[in-house]
Amino acid sequence: MINKLVEKIKKLNAPIVVGLDPMLSYVPEHIQKKAFEEFGETLEGAGEAIWQFNKAIVDATYDLIPAVKPQIAMYEQFGIEGLKAFKKTVDYCKSKDLVVIGDIKRGDIGSTSGAYAAGHVGRVQVGSKTYVPFDEDFVTVNPYLGTDGVKPFIDVCKEENKGIFVLVKTSNKSSGEFQDRLIDGKPLYEIVGEHVAKWGEEHMGDSYSYVGAVVGATYPEMGKVLRKIMPKTYILVPGYGAQGGKASDLKPYFNEDGLGAIVNSSRGIIAAYKQEKYAKFGAEGFAEASRQAVIDMIEDITSNVY
């Protein structure tokens, strides 16, 4: 799957991923109203609203982008109905030939990690039948329980030809409370990066590993160091746009071939119609606003990185 992701990025000249993280407040009133008329102001109504919102954005952008990244928390907040919308979104994106990165940030030990891996990137046995529950192509993984929390994901990904992105240096302001702590003279995020590179050697694609890393756009100097530590690792870069990361800071995350990183934007794209820059589209044209935001993001990043 890493080979497919790289090829789509090259073909589209678009090293970006759209974060499908739909807060209900992002969903235009006319979408909510229609869903509530059908299902009432219920969790089922909320699930329908975010599903229709996602579908419209995907329809407007799928030909421009290589991948999407639905953040599962935005769906879980609506319970089972939200998870149904998550699954519908994953399946619909895959029907459009998009690579799906499930932002689930799981990480436990032994059989528990194995169960998370089976549910999201693997398959489960039910009697004589086998099912693929969520079926993302990649998932994000928290490594802070150690190798035995990550290895079950890698094992399943080898079987299914899928991949993971391991949290190395996250974009949030307080990430340094733990991730920047010095251990034997090195910041912890560097040690995690070294492990990611090592894990990745066991699961390689043509040029890059199936074991990727998450490194926030808000820390370009750290990104530069981590790029050298993980030369064969694809870096998923959150924090661009709304969180303060700028395209001019992104070059260190990429390799000399112009590959090696994929930059995420979530509300900057899916809620673009709420920005002054795209206000002309109005709430009715929210999907078209998202398409224009994607075009602008691609131009911003490629002109600053390549």
Brief summary of the model shown:
This protein has 306 residues and is an alpha/beta fold. It has one domain: TIM Barrel, CATH 3.20.20.70. It contains twelve helices and twelve strands.
Question: What does this molecule look like?
Answer:
With 306 residues, this protein is an alpha/beta fold. It has helices at residues 2-12, 29-39, 43-61, 73-76, 79-95, 110-121, 147-160, 176-179, 188-201, 220-229, 267-270, 286-305, and strands at 16-18, 67-68, 99-106, 124-126, 129-131, 138-141, 163-169, 182-183, 186-187, 211-215, 235-237, 261-265. It has an eight-stranded parallel beta barrel with strand order 1-2-3-6-7-10-11-12, surrounded by seven helices. It has a two-stranded antiparallel ribbon with strand order 4-5. Strands 8-9 form a two-stranded antiparallel sheet. The longest helix is centred in the C-terminal third of the chain and has 20 residues, at 286-305. The model has no long low-confidence stretch (mean pLDDT 95).
